[in-house]
Amino acid sequence: MKFFRNCFFVVLISCFAFNSHAQNSTAADTGSKINFNQTDAKGKRDGMWYIHQPARMGEDSYSEFGSYDHGIKFGKWYKTDNDGELVAIETFKNNVLNGEVKYFDKGHLYCVGHYRGLNPSQKYDTVMVVDPVTGAQSLVSVLAERGSLKHGTWQYYDPLTGRLEKEQEYQVDDLVYSKEFAMASVDSAYYKKKVQMLPHNAASGHYYKPPAGKQHSLTGTSE
């Protein structure tokens, strides 16, 4: 889990910078000063930014941290939910998703995928595709206004055990391959044992019990 700890450390640094109103912070590894939440001469976001998005229109609040290049979102961006749990690590280029993305459920990895970002400065962009049967390569023209396309391998994991459950291959948003992986007997036994130990599973014997004298029935009478 070293990778997750490093991600969490990055988010903590960004939160500190935000709460300090983007004052100078000292990077522990280099000793250099880093300015957060800055703008360039034209008022465009530039450099490292921490952004908190309050809940709105039925969507939960979240925070994200990453870099801008004169108003253009690029590189890896880290997103956390309202509880500070890691939700996503996404890669951007020219303000659109491009490259590997990772998604998490309560901090546990459940999906790794790939996007192909389209060039927003052009009306059309071209993407190389491979025929899944013949292996022949060809270029496909796509409207750039579509932003990003699923393009490449997408893998889905059980967030509880880390077991690979499904693998898919996309080309220009089209699904060309899909395979589901059956659970091996040894994995099945491990999974069942882990599920039985969850606090909400009464079979584990570890579910929550109120202290004596604090137990109440639905009718309001003490048990």
TrEMBL record:
Keywords: Signal
Residues annotated as signal peptide: 1-22
Protein known as: Toxin-antitoxin system YwqK family antitoxin
Taxonomic path: Bacteria, Pseudomonadati, Bacteroidota, Chitinophagia, Chitinophagales
